[in-house]
Amino acid sequence: MSEAVGLTLLGVDVRALAQSVTARPDLIDSLSEPFHRSSRRPLLGIDCFGDQDARAACDAFIRVARCSADALADAAIDGAAGVAPNLFHGGRVRADLILGGGLDARPDLLRRLSGRYRLRGNGPEIADVLVDPPRWFGLLDRLGIAYPPVTADRPVVPKGWLLKHAASCGGQGVISANADAVLNADGVTAPDAYFQRQVAGGVVSAVFIADGCNARIIGFNRLNCEVTGQRPYQYAGAIVWAGPSTEQRRIIGGWVEGLTRALELRGINGIDLILPALGQSSCDAAPADRNPLLLELNARPTATVELHAERLPGGAVHCHLEACDGRLPAMSSPPQATTASAALRGCRVLYAPHPITTRHCDWPAWCRDQPAPGTRIGVGEPVCSVSAQGTDAVEVERLLRQRAAAIFRSIADPTTYAADAPNTRAA
Description:
By secondary structure, the protein is of the alpha+beta class. It has helices at 15-22, 52-56, 69-83, 107-114, 124-130, 133-143, 180-183, 246-263, 316-324, 393-412, 417-420; strands spanning 6-10, 43-47, 60-63, 88-89, 92-93, 95-99, 118-119, 150-151, 161-165, 174-176, 193-197, 201-211, 215-228, 231-240, 266-276, 293-298, 344-351, 356-357, 367-368, 376-377, 382-390. The chain contains eleven helices and 21 strands.
């Protein structure tokens, strides 16, 4: 294949990746300012939402109306030539491809895509491991990585257990083993399904960047979930977490290094963990004497990477591509709770409490994933996301709550934005 001249971003939502190509990190709380493209490569975005800010960051865009992994892959393989002919030459794609969420559990589709694009990140051979519970947990055992107890068999007493699907995206493949659908045996026989013991604690994540041999942690986050219909663990945002103890950082760093070497991970990745005894609030302090348990590996750039934009010189996509070529960016250590001057960032995904048809409005600068006028959004579907920055998690959480409330009020009355949540950085 000739040298790639274009770049395609593919996933359920590629807005954050697209903006990392085009925006400066210092614009995190004022992204209504004009974008400044750092690369002249043609940029094609393909996702399931087609939000206004995602489209504005790309040269061409495809919105996939039927949101599924197959539909996303079809759009990248069969539909891209119609909207971005400059990515093609002689019937062959001339573009790199970076994957977001949504195709993690489909190594077959990754193989299809790799026949047309140059995959920049982790390939199907890694997905093969992640979607095969015996292989995945066997690897964790060999690496000495702790995780909550798992079983392939339905627990006799389902209370306190979760049914999970390997490599699911955004918590969508996680439900209580006590749910009616599980008790009626729906979905239990899927080859990627397994049961895992539920552990009380707070869910955290570590975003890292790897070159196939070595890895560096970009930052830590506290993750928030929201109950949406049958999805009790739906991803609902995050706040940068400066609270891991020295021992917790050592353990997590060792796991990241071990997984990187064992799987030859490349680019930006993330791991989700649970820290027993950590409270559910993003503002709770972490008990220094409790060790984390690994929940999953996201072998792709995660949604929380944009919270650490200032630590990635040239932007997340630039650093991802550099790492794929064996060059890790120079970075300082992630912020710690004792770093008084460190500003923390956070984001929250807003889900529709009732059916919504969006109207034309001037979205605040701290609002991301801005739907186009006339977009019809069903109950429990994402409306948009809000962001905030503050000196500590308490302040960030307060701003996120204020801004979420302002957005929901504006759905009924678009004139209420500015009163409670000014369109400026409030930190």
